[in-house]
Specification:
The protein is built from five helices and four strands.
């Protein structure tokens, strides 16, 4: 969601199996249905939208993995290399079910399902 078609083409050219919802005519699909489709097809959601992380946390679902880009520069020249790096370095975790938050200085991996924080006292 929100990922440029330029990024999609470049990732595809580098060997990543990737489909943009726009290519399927599904760019207006609601977020929960996107997650359901991704889980059913064993795909990873690439997005700039924090709502996907919130939906996964609320559902406590173990899949699909989601990569959330939190970058100021959202041009393909900035996004594509970061996504390529995360996909290459986190291939196993992405297959197991994670949320990856990609920030300006690195990325953070959180396994799914997201468990609520227990509060003591």
């Amino acid at each position: 969601m929100g990922v440029s078609m330029v990024t999609v083409r470049e990732l595809r050219e580098s060997g990543v199996e990737i489909v943009h919802l726009r290519e399927l005519g599904l760019q207006q699909l609601p977020d929960d249905q996107i997650l359901g489709k991704a889980a059913a097809e064993q795909r990873v959601v690439l997005t700039f939208d924090l709502d996907f992380g919130h939906l996964l946390a609320a559902s406590r679902a173990p899949y699909p993995s989601v990569v959330i880009m939190r970058l100021k520069d959202q041009r393909p020249s900035a996004v594509t290399p970061r996504l390529r790096l995360v996909i290459n370095e986190c291939e196993k975790q992405l297959a197991d079910g994670v949320v990856i938050l990609v920030a300006e200085r690195g990325y953070r991996v959180r396994p799914l399902p997201i468990r609520p924080v227990s509060r003591q006292g």
